[in-house]
Amino acid sequence: MPYGPPGRPTPPPRKSGGGFLSTLIVIIIVVVVGGLVRYAVNTGFDGAIGPRPTTTYTPGSGEAPAATGDNPLVTDTDGTLVPASCDYAPWGTQVERARAFFESAAVCLEAAWKPVMERNSLPFEAPTLSVTASTAGITTPCTGSTSNFAAFYCPANKTIYMPISQLQTDYFRDNWIVYLSVFAHEYGHHIQAQSGILIKANSERRAAGVHSDRGLELSRRVELQANCFDGMFISSTSDGGSLTADQVGLATEDSYGRGDRVGDMRDHGSSENGGRWFENGLAHNLTSRCNTFTASASEVS
């Protein structure tokens, strides 16, 4: 199924809305909770380095464990998003209509993820949502005052930024499933932050060097896990009757169109692996099947 209007070629592979490095890199250093946070163009986890873990996890304590592959969220073999019928507001490129759409999606995402977090004695706080026409004049703790960013999640203020101008609406038109999938990916980064996965990945990446082979591999593991969490949500809302088979097919095809391009920093993973991890979440709807931190190097290349 083509992404855009008939006769238009399939677009080249793209970073997801959460990409943290692309060919043109802008590095901004900000101070967040006593730690350094580094971001670049198209941020999401997405290059977040900091803050350092400061707590010891005790189940039921309300604190998140600083853990990745052995995090309770991904060692839970029954961690699934229960199918639900989501009442999505009509999509539109006008700010108010787009905001209403993403707000309705956020309600459904919270209903899907909160029980899984509670089941594993993990804290949950809904993210803040910022929907704007463009990136002009937007200042965030993660990007500073630069206007060169796409949709992304900023863990420093627990906010998902969805600038309409960066969603390729001229290409995808009213195929709102694509925008929903991008949003679900960014929400996946919020789940990583809430569960403690992001804190641990940040710490290890900082220790290894953010641009080292190990540092970039950690970034890919984070991004591909968010792809898998995205697939889980699309599966759950599809099973709940809110998406058609054609829409799920389009979201799946789109997942294979994102990833590292030639010349990019190897921070997101190949488009093939991006699609595979999305389909893994889609097919199984289990957090344990999204454990990218125990996957082989070739699965996160």
UniProtKB/TrEMBL annotation:
Keywords: Membrane, Transmembrane, Transmembrane helix. The chain crosses the membrane at residues 20-41. InterPro entries: Uncharacterised_pept_Zn_put. It is found in: Membrane. One of its GO terms (cellular component) is membrane. It comes from Nocardia mangyaensis. It is a single-pass membrane protein. This is Metalloprotease. Residues 50-74 are annotated as: Disordered. It holds the Pfam family Zn_peptidase.
